[in-house]
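From the pipeline queue, job 12 of 40. The input is one protein chain; the requested action is below.

Action: predict structure.
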Amino acid sequence: MQRYLAYAGVLLLAVTMLVLAAFWPVAWWGVAVFGALALLGTWDLLQTRSTLRRNYPVLAHFRYGLESVGPEIRQYFIEGDTAEVPFSRQQRSLVYQRAKGVMDVVPFGSQQDVYGVDYEWINHSMAPKHVDSHDFRVVIGAASAQPYSASVFNISAMSFGALSASAVRALNEGARRGGFYHDTGEGSISPYHREKGGDLVWEIGSGYFGCRDGQGRFSEERFVENACSPQVKMIELKLSQGAKPGHGGVLPAAKVSAEIAATRGVSMGHDCVSPATHSAFSTPIGLLQFIARLRELSGGKPTGFKLAIGHPWEWFGIAKAMHETGLLPDFIVVDGAEGGTGAAPAEFIDHVGVPMHEALLLVHNTLVGLNLRDRVRVGAAGKIISAFDIARAMAMGADWCNAGRGFMFALGCIQSQSCHNDRCPTGVATQDPARWRHLDVADKSVRVQQFHDNTLKALRDMLCAAGLEHPQQLGPEHILRRVSPIEVRSLASLYRFLEPGELLDRVPSHAVFRDFWAEARSDAFAPPRRVSALCDTKDR
């Protein structure tokens, strides 16, 4: 019966305080406190929804309370500085220091286990370079009417609705100050994106928010209204995202505010649905025709798509469609499965989609094998925080990198993982004005700009130490990885890199190309016959 001791104790204390209150008026405070706990314990015994509360009246609530602050306790008191869950204290501290413009040097040696498996580094040169500027850029859409010179480090797609008004303002002002771009996310272009005038990449998802008609279909007229804004520098069609590829999403009607409804072009009082698939096309060729139409309607602005790689034959179908039709996107952004700034089902977060390194390499290799790599720029997104993260991604084939959570840290995010419940403690990922109004836009925009600036300075210094002058010179031979306690290999030797044009005259020995390239179709996303046949062997 020990489990009832807490309940019995508060009952006894409530009665005792009631007796004392007859002689000592201040005891009425005890009556109120212990009486309330006694009532709570009584309700625990009478209710039937929770067995734990019936068996441990009063005491069970202490367990719930401790459980509710468990993430904070682990983060602040238990986790090591290098434990990435999902970002380590060391990674977050680096962003905070660079965003605030304070000293970011590290004393007394590395905390990394340099003899541990998967430890990575870049080799330095005996002939280091000197480069004055750290404003590294890449031209996207060189053959289009309005090419864009982009920074190699930019703000990844995060929608207004997922982020607060103040967060959007601060990100865009930081982008304007630093000369880099701000991806709108699929929630379209809000007034807060326009307010500060920073460069925008307009992301269009399957809900066609900001360019949809009353039935949720793509509207050319609405698209032109937004796409022709001078602030919009590029158009990005989202096929899938790292956090929940192939899932789509629903913003419940209760959360569709007047501002969100106006921004997305939806009506209040109804769920805002982002379907899992696009209605404007259904085949790889149709996708490329749609991309070409968006480029034309926007007046020749660089137009491309973002995707998280899933079934390889589907990506191969898109690549074959490029080769067969000559219709090319100006860019492709590869989103890794480790990415994601908002909320997603646990299974999607943990077990759906290809991680960024392998996905990026597959896209890069395919374009190289078709002799298209010099005509299509490739961006990479997925847990990019430091200059080394940028260098590694570019060494594996990226032309530039995007970051979402890194810039959220620059805004003051503390990784409370409250993005989904509207209770973000720092006002970054919430629509509660009582929270986001306390986010100082003027101060945080400076931090966004400084995080970007100081990260690129670190990238410059790293490149110079390696004897390089621009991140485009990075290749897989520059990055080393420990694969066992006694073996080190470069990424060039760990991964298979295709030769230019290799896919045009033969099927490479690379396993994924050998298994799926020949049967991939440019006219359908359907699986190869062999894959379907394996499914048909099951007893239905």
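Job complete. The CA atoms of residues 207 and 274 lie 4 Å apart.
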